[in-house]
Amino acid sequence: MNNPITARYPSNIALVKYWGKHGNQLPCNASLSMTLSQAYTEVNLFLQDKKSEEPEFTFLFNGKPKESFRQRILKYILKQKEFSGLLEDYALHIESQNSFPHSAGVASSASAFAAIAAALLKASQGDETDFPEQQASRLARLGSGSACRSFYGPFALWGKLKDIPDSNDEFAIRLGDIHENFQNMRDSILIVEDKSKSVSSSLGHSLMEGHPFAESRFKQANNHCMDMLKVLKDGDFQSFIYITEREALSLHAMMMTSREYFMLMQPETVKIIDEVKRFRVDTGLPLCYTLDAGPNIHLLYPKTIEDEITPFVNNFLHNHTIKSMINDYSGRGGIIS
Ligand code: DP6
Q1: Where on the phi/psi map is residue 20: left (φ > 0), alpha (ψ -120 to 50), or beta?
Q2: Could you read off the pLDDT of 174-220 as tens digits, one per residue?
Q3: Which of 52, 88, 276, 295 is the most exposed place for a label (fewest CB within 10 A)?
Q4: Ligand 1 and 144: CB distance under 6 A
Q5: What pTM was estimated for this model as a whole?
C-alpha cells in the first residue's frame, strides 16, 4: 500500500446550537462552537490501483468493516464534484478511528466528516502545498453541518450574521480576538448514558420545519451568537454562562415541543444541572454546562479553576451518578499530512 494521507480532526461542542437546516445542508441560524482537542477522528486515506470501471471504495471503522458508514460516505463522495476525479482514478480505501467511544455523547459526525473531507480534498489537490481550509470546511459541512466548525479553534462561527462581514452559511470562520479568560477552556464530558442517542440529527433538524417556535428560535440563536462574540472578546464569564446554559435548554425545549417529541435528559442530567447551579452560587466559580442532542453533560470552565472543579466532578464518578468521563479542552483545529 502507498503512504496514506492522514487527517486528524477534533470534535466541537456548540455553545450556540445549530438546530434546523434547509436546502443543501444550510443552517437556519448561525451557531458558535468551541473546538475540542482530545475527542478526535483520525482518518487514513489510501489511493489504490483500480480493478474496474465502477467506483471502488472500502472502509474500516476501528479496524472493522462498517457497511452503514461505508454507504453514507460513498454517497457523500459521489455527490461532491471536487472528489469525482479521485473515484475515477483510484480505488479509495479509508480507515477511520475515533479517540473516544462511539455514542459517548461526543458528536462523532463532526470530527469524522471534518477528517474525511480534509483527507479527500488533500488527495484531490495533488502537489499543491497550501491546504485550502475554507474549502475543506465547506465540503465537511456537506457531510455533516457541525463538521465545518472543527477546522478552527478555539472558537468558530458558522452561519450568516448581517453585522459580521465574513460570516456565511457555506463554511465556518475562526473567531479572532478572544479574551484571555477564554483562551484555555476545559470541557469535562460527563457520560450519563453510553447507549446510542435516541434522536438522529437529521430527524431532529427536520422537526424544526413547521415547529411552532421555529422563527423565534432562529432569531434567538442569531442574537445569542452576536452576544457571544462580544462576551468572548470582553472576557465576561457571567454572560458566557447565561448564554451557554440558555442555549442548551432551548435546544432541549425545541426537541420536547416538536410534533414528534424527544425528552433526552435523564434524571441524572437534571440532578447534575441542579448541582452545577448550586456549586456556582456557593463558590462563585465560573462553571457552566451545555448539552448536545442527548443526556450527557459538557461542563465548561477555564483551566485556571481546574483544581477547584476536579473534586466536584470526581464526586459524580464516585457516587455513580455518571458512567464515565472524558477530559477535554479547547483546541486549535486539525492536522493533515
Ligand atoms: C445538537 O451536525 O450532527 O449537535 O448536519 O444533519 O449532520 P447534520 O447535523 P449535526 O447536528 C448537530 C446538532 C447539535 C448542535 C450543534 O452541534 O450545533
Answers
A1: left
A2: 999 999 999 999 999 999 987 766 688 889 999 999 999 999 999 99
A3: 52
A4: yes
A5: 0.96
